[in-house]
Design a protein that fits this description.
Elements (H helix, E strand, L loop, with lengths): L2 E8 L3 H9 L21 E8 L8 E13 L3 E8 L9 E9 L5 E8 L4 H24 L2 H8 L16 E7 L2 H12 L2 E6 L3 E6 L2 E7 L14 E6 L3 H10 L3 E8 L4 E7 L5 E7 L11 E2 L6
Parallel strand pairs: 7-10, 11-14
Antiparallel strand pairs: 1-6, 2-3, 3-4, 4-5, 5-6, 7-11, 8-9, 8-15, 9-10, 12-13, 13-14
Length: about 300
């Protein structure tokens, strides 16, 4: 297989390095205002790179296209990568970048670029990537701290995952008779079954909302305050950042950020009033069959 391997040490932490490779293309590589798309699993992106022209002429524009395949915050980014005749030659290639935190707060990045259609395209990128990465390190180091903070706090929507309903807030309710509860939700509220894990839980949708009904055994998990256990799931762009922010503002940790088999990275906190919240971020699109779910209806087609 034709592939390129390159490394660089970036003078920023893993959060900033990850951002640069998923949303901040214009900080180090892309032409300002040319970036299109958001860092969502399955979502496309586009940007231009400009090469200066000789004698002050019009710069040459090099379009870059791709689609995010895997996003693991601060750890790994994987995407497709398509450029023109002087790049991949229109062939769809694959770029994977791993981020490793260093003791001094910097980040060691390892880049793998695979799937070139020709030896010439592979050779071009083998020569270009070390130069591009060196320029990346210089440009990220020069970005003022206040610009970094502004960038990192910008809102980013969640990505697509077949294992999760397409809703921002997902209440989870517990029932001693799961089948009876689902029948009630369908008959009375008009919900539609979306995904079923036999004997464990059922995802249902209603309009642009969703609810999860979970099997509950009162003898092993007593009711709290006279009511069955309940949690509100909220989808976020960056679960590690949301988790840290919640703890800073008085929340109690119930479970730390953990990447789950269903493609979600999740953490649970209890807010100052005592309510439980599950924060979840999509890191990849997973077929529910891979973890025991039965997808009955995908609202996104």
């Amino acid at each position: 297989m034709r592939s390129v391997h390159s490394t660089v040490t970036l003078p920023v932490d893993t959060e900033r390095a990850y951002y640069a490779w998923t949303a901040g293309w214009d900080l180090w590589f892309a032409r300002t205002d040319s970036v299109r798309g958001r860092p969502q699993v399955g979502a496309p992106f586009y940007f231009d790179v400009e090469a200066p022209a000789a004698n002050g002429g019009v710069p040459t524009r090099h379009p870059h296209y791709g689609r995010f395949l895997e996003l693991v915050p601060f750890e790994r980014m994987r995407c497709t990568w398509v450029t023109g005749p002087s790049g991949t030659g229109g062939a769809e290639t694959m770029v994977t970048v791993h981020f490793q935190a260093l003791a001094d707060g910097h980040t060691h990045c390892t880049l793998h670029h695979d799937g070139f259609a020709t030896d010439e395209a592979c050779d071009r990128h083998a020569a270009a990537w070390p130069l591009v990465l060196a320029a990346q390190a210089r440009r990220l180091a020069a970005l003022p701290a206040h610009d970094w903070e502004r960038r990192l706090t910008e809102s980013q929507p969640y990505g697509r995952n077949r294992s999760v309903p397409d809703a921002s807030f997902i209440p989870t309710r517990s029932y001693p008779d799961l089948d009876a509860a689902v029948d009630w939700l369908v008959t009375v509220l008009g919900c539609t079954e979306r995904l079923r894990v036999p004997g464990e839980r059922v995802q249902l949708t209603l309009g642009d909302g969703a609810v999860v009904a979970v099997a509950w055994n009162p003898s092993t998990m007593p009711a709290s305050g006279g009511r069955p256990p309940a949690t509100l799931v909220v989808r976020v762009a960056n679960v590690d950042r949301a988790w840290s922010l919640a703890l800073t503002h008085g929340a109690t940790a119930l479970s730390p950020p953990t990447t789950m088999p269903d493609g979600e990275r999740q953490a649970t906190v209890r807010d100052p009033a005592g309510h439980a919240w599950m924060l979840t971020q999509t890191v990849r699109d997973v077929d529910p069959a891979q973890w025991g779910g039965i997808l009955l209806r995908d609202e996104r087609g």
